[in-house]
């Protein structure tokens, strides 16, 4: 769901996200946001940090109190690290900048839908060197591995995975090697078999993966 008080901004972002396979709902304020959440299943909420007469980060905190597992991210023009810290403290899973390239916004949305944390690339270095950084790094690494497993199921090449995650091919290969070591296997086939066996023994709720509802 896109939460922004400017219809033209919502329209542009909606076109971008729909081009990436997302189904998009819209809201202009907190009342519309909570109404949509009552009516629809939502996989991700992207909120502007400043709505008309409302603070988007305060809205994120209110959403987090009522929807503990719902991925939330701030999508804004403001790159102030104080705002980033406020957003993380409010329970946001990410902080994105509207001036980002479309491919980064799509990659970020995919990471967030699957429960990861995403920080705009222009803010990452400064924020990750702060006291909050180590936990974020650990969470991001775990989520990256989870996404790679999803991509393996889709039979994507290393190059395709790298493009999806905005990483180098060498980084993807390094992450795959870590997964092979963790599961004590030698190749992709062994890794898929090992993870399928683990999931059959420890089943988890399976989120909608093909067409996430970006609401």
What report would you give on this structure?
The strands form 3 sheets. A 6-stranded parallel beta sheet has the order 3-1-4-7-8-9, with helices on both faces. Strands 2-10 form a two-stranded parallel ribbon. It has a two-stranded antiparallel ribbon with strand order 5-6. Strand 7 (72-76), helix 4 and strand 8 form a beta-alpha-beta unit. It folds into 2 domains: 1-130, Response regulator (Rossmann fold, 3-Layer(aba) Sandwich), CATH 3.40.50.2300; 131-204, Arc Repressor Mutant, subunit A, CATH 1.10.10.10. The chain has helices at 7-19, 30-39, 56-66, 81-90, 102-113, 121-128, 133-153, 158-165, 169-183, 188-201; strands at 2-3, 23-24, 26-27, 45-47, 50-51, 54-55, 72-76, 94-97, 118-119, 213-214. Helix 8 crosses helix 9. The protein has 10 helices and 10 strands. It is 57% helix and 12% strand. It is of the alpha/beta class.
Count of distinct structural domains: 2
User: What CATH architecture of the largest domain would you give?
Assistant: 3-Layer(aba) Sandwich
State the CATH topology of the largest domain. Answer: Rossmann fold
* Quantity of strands, as a count: 10
Secondary-structure-based class equals: alpha/beta
CATH superfamily of the largest domain: Response regulator
Number of helices: 10
Q: Stretches where pLDDT falls below 50 for ≥5 residues?
A: 205-210
Helix content: 55-70%
Order of helices and strands: EHEEHEEEHEHEHEHHHHHE
Strand order of the largest sheet: 3-1-4-7-8-9
The backbone outline, from C-alpha atoms, is: globular
End-to-end distance:
2 Å
Rg, nearest Å = 18 Å
């Amino acid at each position: 769901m896109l939460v922004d008080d400017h219809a033209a901004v919502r329209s542009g972002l909606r076109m971008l996200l729909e081009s990436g396979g997302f189904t998009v709902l819209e809201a202009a304020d907190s009342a519309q946001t909570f109404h949509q959440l009552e009516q629809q299943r939502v996989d991700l909420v992207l909120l502007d940090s400043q709505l008309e007469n409302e603070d988007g980060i305060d809205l994120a905190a209110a959403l987090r109190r009522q929807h503990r597992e719902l991925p939330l991210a701030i999508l804004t023009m403001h790159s102030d690290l104080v705002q980033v810290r406020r957003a993380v403290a409010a329970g946001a899973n990410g902080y994105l900048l509207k001036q980002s390239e479309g491919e980064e916004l799509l990659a970020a949305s995919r990471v967030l839908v699957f429960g990861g944390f995403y920080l705009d690339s222009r803010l990452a270095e400064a924020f990750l060197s702060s006291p909050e950084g180590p936990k974020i790094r650990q969470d991001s690494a775990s989520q990256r591995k989870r996404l790679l497993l999803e991509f393996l199921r889709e039979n994507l090449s290393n190059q395709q995975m790298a493009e999806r995650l905005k990483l180098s091919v060498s980084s993807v290969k390094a992450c795959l090697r870590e997964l092979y070591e963790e599961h004590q296997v030698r190749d992709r086939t062994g890794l898929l078999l090992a993870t399928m066996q683990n999931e059959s023994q420890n089943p988890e709720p399976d989120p909608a993966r093909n067409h996430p509802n970006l609401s």
